[in-house]
Amino acid sequence: MLRRQPVSHEPSLPTPPRERWPLAVALAALVAGAALLGVALGGVFTKHSHARLPAPPAAPAVVVMTPAPAPGAAAAVDTSAVTGPATAAQGQQQAKQSPATQKADAKRFTINDRTHVAADWVSGFYGIYAEAQKVYGVNWLLIASVHKQETAFSTHPTTYHGLNFANCCAGPMQFNVTNGPVSTWKRYKDSFARGTRPADYPHKTAKHPSIYDDYDSIMAAAALLRDSGAGRDLDASAWQAAYDYYGHDATGVSYADEVMARAIGWGQKSFCINCLTDSGLMNAVDAAWGAPARTALDAAAAAKDEDAVALAASKKSSSSKSSSKKK
Q1: How do the pLDDT tens digits run along the chain, 327 residues long?
Q2: In the chain, which ranges are continuous DSSP H helix?
Q3: What is d(CA 143, CA 132) in angstroms, rounded to the nearest whole number?
Q4: What is the domain partition of the chain in residue ranges?
């Protein structure tokens, strides 16, 4: 006999659906699609960003290879300029610096070498470098290396206003405005007039010449380097021009070594905005050109000390003779 099942008067609840997985799959697909779209668009933007950057100027065909630390190479440096007065051509940007200032400058050059600079910013100078090389015949890699050494491609906070920490120099290429009676900047400020100003570059001033205008300043630096002997080759003459650009002291030797090592490295490989200066090239440059100049500085200092001692002895002798006569 069949038993009747009891009838419940409670409302029945629907069983939770088990078909939620299609929704999860759809959401996952949506997220993945968005990510792929982002990557694709990012690639497009990156590609277009790189496409907007102009190529650096062509380096001269002749770029010196790593200088050999041989005695013959050392003789190519004009060490006679170490002790002599600066000529109008040489400029000698820096006057005699105190040890504290030289130390601060060395630190500044290290910071500028390590400062990361955006490629699109530096590309704004390519037209100026090319024009400076064309007009003054100076290898643009040397000009660019001085630019990085002085203000990290015009990114130092004081580049476009005031004077530097030593209260002597200003602008992208740190021209001296205080060494007179005619300062280095006044001698070279009109150098821009020989070239054609690019239509656009990072910092164009309203009036010219301006020490804070990138074109005016870089063209002046190219003229100064040219008058100091720099040309198309990255050689001993270019080292001497870099040495003259800073000034004839121990910091000036290190300055020229770094400027030249950086320029030669760019010439051998490629123009690398944020690559550190190669220490091996620095050592080679110093052995070939820096060491002889440093030796000449030491010899000049020793001779000066000897002259001072001799002068003091002469004065003492004269004083003794004078005292004897009075007696």
Answers
A1: 545 555 444 444 444 445 555 555 555 666 566 555 554 545 444 444 445 788 999 877 766 666 766 544 444 555 555 444 344 344 456 555 677 887 888 888 999 999 999 999 999 999 999 999 999 999 999 999 999 999 999 999 999 999 999 899 999 999 999 998 899 999 999 999 999 999 999 999 999 999 999 999 999 999 999 999 999 999 999 999 999 999 999 999 999 999 999 999 999 999 999 999 999 999 999 999 999 999 999 999 888 876 667 677 677 666 666 666 665
A2: 21-52, 71-74, 99-114, 119-122, 126-136, 140-151, 184-188, 214-227, 236-246, 250-268, 279-285, 291-326
A3: 8
A4: 54-307
